[in-house]
Design goal:
The complex is a heterodimer. Chain A is mainly α. Chain A is built from 14 helices and no strands. In chain A, helix 5 packs antiparallel against helix 6, helix 6 crosses helix 8 and helix 7 crosses helix 8. Helices cover about 30% and strands about 25% of the residues of chain B. Chain B has 20 helices and 23 strands. The C terminus of chain B is likely disordered. The longest helix of chain B is centred in the first third of the chain and has 18 residues. Chain B is α/β, with parallel strands linked by helices. Chain B starts with a strand and ends in an 18-residue tail after the last strand. The chains are: A mainly alpha, B alpha/beta. Chains A and B meet through helix 9, helix 10 and helix 14 of A and helix 2 and helix 4 of B.
């Protein structure tokens, strides 16, 4: 097991390294010029050369890359082109926002998606199943920003026009400052994100449960005289779980790297919105840091998923001994 | 005392193609303490019948009456039914691996069953579970309590299922093909265990099987089902010895368990009726050699002179159809070294494993196959028989040793030589459902060899495929059908036709009939025999079923753990097995020698009038409908 984890960590580091090379090369070949963006349209050629020299952009790309890699290994991500602040600080202050957004949404989407999926699978073809399937289709095909707008319109705009301030339209209050306000401010983004993702989980759960419910050991469980509830949750859902855990790990990993649209719609200053503004400004050190951060999250999430998979499946678990 | 009283049970299952009339008006009684067998081919409705008694068939529409110890089970609330399941009636299923939950330990699963019905502590339930595991002879039961199903062998898993079924001391144990997925020696052990447990726990056993040999070993009374209806019921030695119903007689003629080797198996022509629209009148009429005009009316259940009850209009014993005439040109098996079509010399095959020692699959096999003979290769699953066949066919490269085919080595063949070898050696596979591509038409499947070897094309190929289809008894008009439109036996014929396309010399038959029903098995075995006579083929016949092997093979090689432990003429091996393993195999396969009871020999069986009403079971619907 240890060997397996070490292998995965090594592989993860390789992925991160390749990711950094890729992003670097991408910026090198792209036609836009950070100096022009920093200095503005009317800057002189001399000023721009000065800026390039300051940022080290006049050196060959290989030198630039090794310079970057050297400081990265010392734990230094460099300075933002735009604000000249340390990249690490910029990114770190955004992480709690994104984490808050994702963690709340995860709970919600599991709480919505899995029961819908199970209810659908228990009675395939029933009215409940069709409603559940309809929810899934709508959720999957609705663009996130449209749903965000609709949620804002219904739960913020309409009530406040009527004089009732149900929810704040945007903003973020740190959890440690005021937990209630934290949750209050995040409720709308959570709901929006959860509705979109829950649809995927409802479908996945339904498919898995349908397959498991047709297995011989479910018939055995019935023949043993167990209650339907116990058969559904202890026997069937137990076997349907591994693919859900896999999907969950990947989704969380991806989203911690920035939930771009939701953060934009609700004005949350998370990693996603930082990514958007940095791309617009060609702020290469910040973008690389965000890409690497996303990479780290995905790699770690996958590692956790693989380990969890082993623990969820007796066959994998006992084979490892 | 009647423990289970089923009356006029009807089970309809709605499906995409229409309603499946799986069980049609079946009535029977199981007596307290007896071993009651239900026999029937696949699609006869036997499994659906017992599962519907327990309410385990989803979306089934059930009518009639099922009384367990005078308590009606149909129509009671789900909660009440749950109280019966597992506690009063428990079930054992066919495949113990898929029937046990893979993610929980066996101990956990037994404890769950106990605690679902009795308010006992976990520790007490665990002690009881370990006790049960000991009872079913699982070695080292206390430590195996925490093992998962996949860590047990097939036989041990079925023991776990039996322990679970016994855990609450149920009155009735329903076993649905409990030994079908197991090797024959293990099968015998499980049957013995079931018998012992029945005595020890005083339970009644209702066992379903398609295997007449198995039921003749253990059952006190047997019920025969066909097309969703009951054909015959009575004491097992009577039903399986002197049946009153032509269907039972036909089943017995087509199964090899009680036949002298060499006597041709006589199959029942045709195929079972569709349960979507079962015929009116007697369901067996269309395949019945004794069919009469009156059979258009559903026959009544009548009592016969030997105590059997059967649904048939026949006034005399079922007639014995003439055995298929054996062509006079008795096939000759040449002897002498030059006649050897295949010779293997000290053949070894081993897989290296990442951890642990090498796994030896074939361990020094020296074997010759004589031209024109049928050589049986017998052994339990995992003994290496299929691997040996694949090595002989040149599909696997052995680790050491040589295979000679017709005098020349199989390994190191040129590409052209390999192709030629493929033409001369053909394989027929076990599963006729899985080994044919469902998206391709039968004509093109059978025509593949012509296409691949560039032998015939266009109209010529079509004509030759037509001939082949005729040869194996398929209608050439079905050229454009898909495999799913054929029954199991017909699909195996397709596989045989494909194998014969290039006039091979050696045909490797890898369990060719084990996926087929008894009456169909006989058809295929007879076809193979006929083809061998007319085409001069050599067969390498792989099987785990000794009754079948004995029936068709000239010589038998018994394999155990990658070695051939015994090789000789079929009769010699049967009469004087020298190896203990062979003796075990034989004992497991033949009912006469291992605790089975002698079957009644044929005597005259005649109806003694309509079924007399017994005091506890008045005949219902007096007058119009005599089918109980």
């Amino acid at each position: 097991m240890t060997r397996f984890i070490l292998q995965r960590i090594g592989f993860g580091l390789l992925v991160l390294f390749l990711l950094s090379v890729f992003v670097f090369v991408l910026f090198y070949v792209s036609p836009s010029d950070p100096a022009r963006i920093i200095a503005g349209d009317k800057a002189t050629e001399a000023l721009m050369a000065q800026i390039r020299a300051n940022l080290g952009l006049d050196q060959p790309v290989l030198v630039q890359y090794f310079h970057f890699l050297g400081s990265l290994l010392r734990g230094d991500l460099g300075y933002s082109y735009r604000s000249s602040l340390p990249v690490a600080d910029l990114v770190l202050q955004r992480i709690p926002v994104t984490m808050s957004l994702v963690s709340g949404a995860v709970v919600l989407w599991l709480a919505i998606g899995i029961p819908i999926g199970i209810a659908s699978a228990k009675h395939p073809g029933s009215v409940r199943d069709r409603l559940g399937q309809g929810f899934a289709i709508v959720g999957i095909s609705f663009p996130t920003f449209v749903l965000g707008m609709v949620v804002l319109y219904l739960l913020y705009f309409l009530p406040s026009k009527a004089g009732v301030n149900l929810f704040p339209p945007s903003g973020y209050v740190p959890l440690l400052e005021d937990p209630l306000q934290w949750a209050w401010h995040l409720l709308l983004p959570w709901t929006t994100l959860a509705l979109v993702v829950a649809a995927v989980y409802a479908r996945l759960t339904r498919g898995q449960m349908l397959e498991v419910l047709g297995q011989d050991y479910i018939r055995t469980a019935r023949a043993k005289g167990l209650s339907e509830r116990r058969i559904t949750y202890v026997h069937a859902f137990r076997s349907a779980m591994p693919p859900l855990v896999t999907q969950l790990g990947i989704d969380i990993g991806l989203m911690l790297g920035g939930v771009i649209i939701i953060e934009q719609v609700f004005g949350l200053l998370g990693v996603g919105s930082l990514a958007v503004s940095s791309v617009a400004m060609q702020d290469r050190p910040v973008i690389i840091a965000i890409v690497l951060l996303g990479g780290v999250f995905v790699v770690v999430a996958n590692l956790i998923v693989d380990t969890a998979y082993g623990m969820l499946d007796s066959r994998v678990r006992t084979a490892k001994k | 005392m009647t423990i289970l009283d089923v009356r006029n049970l009807v089970v309809d299952i709605p499906s995409g193609d229409g309603t499946i009339h799986a069980v049609r008006d079946v009535s029977f009684q199981v007596r307290e303490g007896e071993f009651f067998g239900v026999v029937g081919e696949s699609g006869s409705g036997k499994s659906v019948m017992v599962q519907s008694i327990m309410g385990l068939v989803p979306r089934a529409r059930i009518s009639g009456s099922v009384k367990f110890r005078d308590r009606e089970l149909l129509g009671i609330s789900p909660a009440e039914l749950r109280g019966v399941r597992g506690r009063h009636i428990s079930m054992i299923f066919q495949d113990p691996l898929s029937s046990l939950h893979p993610q929980y330990t066996v101990g956990w699963q037994i404890v769950e069953q106990i605690r679902a019905h009795e308010p006992v502590s976990h520790a007490a339930a665990k002690a009881r579970a370990i006790e049960l595991l000991k009872k079913v002879q699982i070695p080292d039961a206390a430590s195996r309590f925490d093992a998962y199903p996949h860590q047990f062998s097939g036989g041990m898993r079925q023991r776990v299922m039996i322990a679970m079924a016994l855990s609450l001391g149920p009155g009735l144990i329903i076993a649905d093909e409990p030994t079908t997925a197991l090797d024959s020696t293990v099968q015998a052990q499980i049957l013995d265990l079931l018998g012992e447990m029945r005595k020890e726990f005083g339970a009644t056993v209702l066992m379903i099987s398609h295997d007449l040999g198995v039921l003749s070993r253990v059952a006190d009374r047997v019920m025969v089902m066909y097309g969703g209806q009951m054909m015959e019921v009575g004491a097992s030695q009577e039903v399986l010895g002197a049946p009153a119903h032509p269907y039972t007689a036909g089943l017995l003629r087509s199964s090899s368990f009680n036949r002298e080797p060499g006597t041709p198996l006589i199959s029942i022509g045709g195929r079972p009726p569709s349960l979507l629209s079962p015929p009116a009148g007697c369901v067996f009429r269309e395949r019945c050699p004794d069919a009469m005009d009156i059979c258009g009316t559903a026959p009544p259940m009548r009592l016969y002179s030997n105590g059997i009850e059967a649904a048939c209009w026949l006034e005399h014993e079922p007639s014995e159809p003439a055995a298929p005439t054996v062509p006079s040109d008795v096939r000759t098996v040449e002897s002498g070294p030059e006649s050897h079509i295949v010779q293997t010399e000290n053949l070894k095959l081993a897989f290296s494993q990442r951890r642990g020692p090498e796994r030896v699959v074939l361990d020094g096999i020296t074997l010759d196959v004589r031209r024109g003979e049928t050589l049986g290769l017998v052994g339990e699953s995992g003994c290496g028989k299929t691997t040996l066949a694949r090595a002989i066919a040149g599909l696997i490269e052995p680790t050491s040793g040589t295979v000679h085919f017709d005098g020349s080595p199989v390994s190191g063949l040129s590409r052209a030589g390999w192709r030629e070898m493929r033409r001369r050696v053909q394989v027929v596979f076990q599963d006729p459902f899985g080994s044919l591509n469902p998206k391709r038409r039968v004509g093109s499947i059978i025509g593949d060899p012509f296409r691949i070897h560039g032998i015939a094309s266009g109209a010529e190929r079509r004509a030759r495929v037509g001939e082949l289809m005729e040869l194996v008894g398929l209608s050439p008009e079905h050229y454009n059908r898909f495999p799913s439109q054929f029954s199991g036996g017909q699909r195996q014929r397709i596989g045989i036709a494909r194998a014969l396309a290039l006039n091979p010399e050696l045909v490797i038959l890898d369990e060719p009939v084990s996926a087929l029903d008894v009456s169909i098995q006989a058809q295929v075995l007879n076809l193979l025999d006929e083809l061998q006579r007319t085409l001069g083929l050599t067969y390498l016949f792989i099987s785990h079923d000794l009754a079948v092997v004995r029936h068709v093979c000239d010589r038998i090689a018994v394999m155990e753990n990658g070695r051939i432990i015994e090789l000789g003429d079929s009769d010699d091996i049967y009469q004087n097995p020298s190896q203990p393993f062979t003796k075990r195999l034989l004992a497991a396969a033949s009912p006469g020698t291992a605790g089975g009871r002698p079957l009644r020999q044929h005597g005259s069986v005649f109806p003694v009038g309509p079924l007399v009403a017994r005091p506890e079971e008045p005949v219902r619907d007096s007058g119009m409908k005599v089918t109980r």
